[in-house]
Write a structure and sequence with these properties.
The protein contains eight helices and no strands. It is mainly α. It comes from Geofilum rubicundum JCM 15548.
């Protein structure tokens, strides 16, 4: 069970959620799904680079300077600087996408993800909110908003994302990384911010 929980924590790592979110948006059957493959490829590369690779590349440096004691960042205080830098890279990604002329649903999703991350920095100063459930909650919120905004049936996709959210929350609890309130609050935090942004 511990190995399974660790695998789940890696698969649904918060730094992978923006890329997963973009993938899900492309598969949702809206007008965005008909974007040319080359345009999608550029968006994927931009999002993955700025929300995953660049933030991850900083962790060894932060570890070397003693800012974080481990890559798990078990204390709330350890997470503040990494989450701040992650927010900075998210902002870079958002600006790059704007320069490329990407707006609409993708732009709203990226902006909402940025807001969720930066606001999590403030919360992290006082409380160890779950970044994992903020991430997966944001993806679930985006899909729910697409269903309402475009009137399309995404029941199966929403069910799968809520199931993945539950599994991720359970994994984090099993590993002792969070208290129940921290994973519930994280999910609601990510879900509501992204849902409102993509819907409006």
């Amino acid at each position: 069970m511990k190995l399974f929980s660790k695998i789940v924590s890696i698969l649904f790592h918060p730094m992978l959620m923006p890329t997963l979110g973009v993938f899900v948006i492309f598969q949702a059957g809206t007008h965005v799904s008909f974007m040319p493959f080359e345009a999608k490829r550029i968006i994927y590369i931009t999002v993955f680079l700025t929300t995953c690779l660049l933030p991850l590349s900083l962790l060894p440096l932060l570890y070397q300077f003693g800012v974080i004691k481990s890559f798990q960042m078990e204390s709330a205080r350890e997470r503040v600087l990494p989450v701040f830098f992650t927010g900075f890279f998210y902002y870079m990604g958002y600006l790059l996408l704007k320069k490329l002329g990407v707006s609409g649903v993708i732009g709203s999703f990226m902006l909402a993800s940025l807001v969720a991350v930066l606001s999590a920095v403030v919360v992290t100063l006082f409380w160890k909110i779950s970044l994992h459930t903020i991430g997966i909650g944001g993806v679930a919120g985006a899909v729910m908003a697409l269903a309402f905004r475009f009137g399309i049936d995404l029941t199966l996709l929403i069910f799968l994302l809520f199931l993945a959210s539950g599994i991720t929350a359970s994994a984090r609890l099993y590993l002792g990384a969070h208290q129940p309130a921290q994973v519930y609050a994280g999910f609601l935090w990510g879900f509501l911010i992204v849902f409102a942004s993509v819907l409006i």
